[in-house]
Structure formats: structure tokens, C-alpha cells
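Shape matters. As here.
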Amino acid sequence: MTHNELMSELQEIFREQFDDEDIILHDATTANDIEDWDSLAHMELISRVEAHFSIHFSLGEINNFANVGEMCDCILKHLAG
């Protein structure tokens, strides 16, 4: 899976999570860029992403996500490993 393919799939997950079809993800997207992305929504989002890609993030990985690009990189590592 390429970075762009992954971002496309993540975008759909984000749109479902936040019920907003207008969300356009970029590597630099953060919680500050999306309305309603609070700590509870973040954990629900992580759960959706893990289920969708059949992966499991460590707590350390989750805490280190500064933006969507870093989440994407981590997902790609899990899928490759």
C-alpha cells in the first residue's frame, strides 16, 4: 500500500468518525484542524483505524502522533512488519 492509498483510506475513516464529508487529510493535519476531534474522539478514531487495518498501536506510538502523517507512517510500518 502506498502513502497516498493509505491517506485515502484514512480520509474515509475520518469522514465517518467526524460525520463530515468535507474533511481533506494532509500529512500536517492535527486535531486542531478538525472540529470535534477531542480526546474521546481520538481514542474512537484510533480504534477504528486499528480495526480497519487489523493492527494494534502501542500506547507510546499513539502518544507520539503529532499529526496524520506520523499516524500514516506508523500504519505503514505495521503493515510492512
Summary: The chain has a mean pLDDT of 96. Residues 13 and 19 are 10 Å apart (CA to CA).
